[in-house]
């Protein structure tokens, strides 16, 4: 944050902070001198251009030499400060944020690019869309940076200006992920850095994080993996309990498919599977949720990058892929033992706890009742019945999970056994 030139010892005055409206747009002014902004002279010297002048469009440099604005012989002439030939060649500018109130704690890894304005700097007014889920800053505020790397028309350089800032209108609890260096990926989008990205550090004496083919200038645009506008892939998508990415097949690696309310997220799938007493949840093909309690074999485990399809309900999360399932632990204290044939006399689980369950039956209500009675096993049957015990009694295990196919009376998405079929769970 330009500590080498003493900026760190001249902080903004108390209360001076740039407001970033979550889900809105931050509008700023770019100028070659403060005199040509609304911050000076009551705005009387402003025009739509950065130098306070008036000109017709299109505006471009000469057809000779490098074609830069200003001129080859007078780089400081009109437009020279923009370091470009015309608007189409303007490289783009960006905003980045660090959730640290102490400037000495700002690093490349926690300073995350959050918005890009393509083909800027050009005119005085510039707009930066702000991600809707950007979380509030700590009580001491955040630090932000304005970023620009021009392409030619002067010495290869990079520009950065830092500000105190804060986020308004946000109740988000998301966290920003660890920023990684961007990669030059023009013509090969698959090579772009995915997720939160660092600012570009290039042509510096030390600390460079970008190397480009032929030393071409790295811009804040698609060539470096930065899409126009709000950067919505900046969040920490690590969900607790991740087990791995696995090849799926028929029969399914996790045998029970469930439907969640609304569009799928990892949290919704985990909650749905946990409510059914399963220890594992799997998300697949963006919108599918599967449950089970047996960890898949290592022989079908894949690289994590193979499960890279965005979740239907949260594009920052990854929900498996076609016939590839991302598996998570649900945190359940119960695990499924499967679907069993039950006998009226004797029952597989000897204690009938149906009457202790208030309201319509669900798996979680039955297992809570069994836990309250200090039983090690619980089971749901015929949509409405709950049984508990400390051992599995007489009875043969059903050949397929599909034989337990009756919806729970209190949860149409849950499975509560069937006729003479009981879903059995054990405490872990």
TrEMBL record:
* A Pfam family matched in the record: LPMO_AA14
Q: Does the keyword Transmembrane helix apply?
A: yes
Residues annotated as coiled-coil are none
* Transmembrane stretches, start-end: none
Q: Where is the signal peptide?
A: none
Its main localization is membrane
**GO annotations of cellular component type:** extracellular region; plasma membrane
Q: Which domain of life is it from?
A: Eukaryota
Per the record, which residues fall in region Disordered?
50-85
List, separated by semicolons, the cofactors it needs: Cu(2+)
Q: Which UniProt keywords apply?
A: Copper, Disulfide bond, Glycoprotein, Membrane, Metal-binding, Monooxygenase, Oxidoreductase, Secreted, Signal, Transmembrane, Transmembrane helix
Localization = Membrane; Secreted
SMART domains assigned:
WSC
What positions does the domain WSC occupy?
Answer: 239-331, 333-428
Please report the record's description of how this protein sits within the membrane: Single-pass membrane protein
InterPro entries annotated for this entry? Kremen_rcpt (IPR051836), LPMO_AA14 (IPR054497), WSC_carb-bd (IPR002889)
List the GO molecular function terms.
Answer: metal ion binding; monooxygenase activity
Mind telling me which PANTHER family this protein's record contains?
KREMEN PROTEIN, PROTEIN SLG1
What family is this? Answer: Belongs to the polysaccharide monooxygenase AA14 family.
Q: What is this protein called?
A: WSC domain-containing protein
Q: From what organism does this protein derive?
A: Podospora fimiseda
């Amino acid at each position: 944050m330009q500590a080498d030139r003493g900026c760190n010892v001249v902080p903004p005055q108390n209360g001076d902070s740039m407001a970033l409206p979550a889900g809105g747009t931050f509008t700023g002014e770019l100028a070659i001198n403060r005199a040509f902004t609304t911050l000076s002279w009551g705005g009387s010297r402003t025009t739509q251009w950065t130098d306070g002048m008036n000109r017709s469009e299109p505006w471009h440099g000469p057809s000779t030499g490098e074609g830069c604005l200003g001129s080859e012989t007078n780089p400081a002439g009109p437009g020279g400060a923009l370091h470009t030939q015309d608007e189409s060649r303007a490289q783009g500018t960006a905003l980045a944020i660090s959730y640290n109130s102490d400037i000495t704690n700002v690093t490349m890894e926690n300073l995350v690019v959050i918005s890009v304005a393509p083909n800027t700097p050009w005119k005085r007014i510039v707009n930066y869309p702000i991600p809707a889920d950007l979380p509030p800053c700590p009580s001491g505020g955040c630090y932000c940076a304005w970023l620009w790397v021009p392409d030619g028309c002067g010495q290869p350089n990079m520009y950065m200006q830092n500000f105190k800032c804060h986020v308004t209108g946000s109740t988000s609890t998301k966290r920003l992920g660890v920023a990684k260096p961007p990669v030059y990926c023009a013509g090969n989008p698959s090579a772009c850095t995915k997720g939160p990205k660092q600012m570009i550090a290039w042509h510096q004496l030390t600390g460079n994080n970008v190397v480009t083919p032929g030393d071409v200038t790295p811009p804040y645009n698609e060539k470096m993996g930065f899409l126009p506008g709000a950067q919505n892939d900046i969040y920490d998508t690590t969900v607790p309990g991740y087990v791995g990415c696995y090849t799926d097949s028929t029969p399914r690696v996790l045998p029970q498919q469930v439907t969640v309310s609304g569009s799928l997220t990892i949290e919704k799938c985990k909650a749905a599977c946990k409510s059914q007493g399963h220890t594992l949840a799997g998300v697949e093909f963006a919108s599918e949720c599967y449950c089970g309690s047996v960890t898949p074999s290592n022989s079908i485990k894949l690289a994590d990058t193979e499960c890279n399809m965005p979740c239907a309900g949260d594009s920052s999360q990854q929900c498996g892929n076609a016939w590839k399932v991302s598996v998570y632990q649900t945190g359940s204290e119960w695990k499924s033992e499967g679907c069993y044939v039950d006998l009226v006399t004797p029952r597989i689980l000897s204690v009938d706890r149906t009457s202790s369950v208030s309201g319509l039956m669900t798996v979680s209500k039955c297992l809570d009742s069994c836990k309250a009675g200090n039983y090690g096993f619980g089971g749901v049957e015929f949509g409405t019945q709950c049984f508990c015990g400390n051992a599995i009694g007489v009875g043969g295990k059903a050949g397929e999970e599909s034989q337990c196919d009756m919806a729970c009376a209190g949860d149409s998405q849950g499975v509560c056994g069937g006729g003479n079929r009981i879903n059995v769970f054990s405490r872990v």
